[in-house]
Amino acid sequence: MTAFEVERQELLKKGYKGVARGVLMELLYRYGRMNQREIGELMGIDYSAVSVMRKRLSGLQKRDRNLSGEIEKIKERLQ
């Protein structure tokens, strides 16, 4: 994911804990027409972990305007 300067292979690793992984999950859900089960399979985690990460990301966005701005820039490029 170029916006967060993280390689694709890193994002898809099960143990990766960065915010970029949560952003990827959210974008796949919102714009990739994937459900949480499919995202979990892609990323090697359970669908419930996808749900937890998306909720966690939502909370982070509310507290961090810079993160929200970065995510909005990505969304604009997707549309």
Helices, strands, pairings?
Blueprint: H1 8-12, H2 19-31, H3 36-43, H4 47-63, H5 65-78
Helix pairs in contact: 2-4, 3-4, 4-5
Structure in words:
The protein has 79 residues and is mainly alpha-helical. It has a single domain (2-78), classed as Chromosomal Replication Initiator Protein Dnaa, Chain: A. Helix content is 72%, strand content 0%. The protein has 5 helices and no strands. It is globular, with a radius of gyration of 12 Å. It starts with 7 loop residues before the first helix and ends with a helix. The mean pLDDT is 90.
Task: Considering the chains and any ligands shown, give keywords for the structure.
79 residues, 5 helices, globular, Chromosomal Replication Initiator Protein Dnaa, Chain: A, mainly alpha, 0% strand, 72% helix, single chain
- Overall mean confidence score, pLDDT: 90
Fourth-tier CATH superfamily name: DnaA protein, C-terminal DNA-binding domain
Question: What is the total domain count?
Answer: 1
User: Given this structure, which CATH class is correct?
Assistant: Mainly Alpha
Discrete helix count: 5
The outline comes out as globular
- CATH architecture annotation: Orthogonal Bundle
The CATH topology assignment is: Chromosomal Replication Initiator Protein Dnaa, Chain: A
Instruction: Supply the helix-strand structural class.
Output: mainly alpha
Number of strands: 0
Helix content: over 70%
Q: What percentage of the residues does DSSP assign to strands (E)?
A: under 5%
String of helices and strands: HHHHH
- What's the alpha carbon Rg, rounded to whole Å? 12 Å
Which parts are unreliable, with pLDDT below 50 for 5 consecutive residues or more? none
Q: How would a crystallographer describe the biggest sheet?
A: none
- Distance, first to last CA: 17 Å
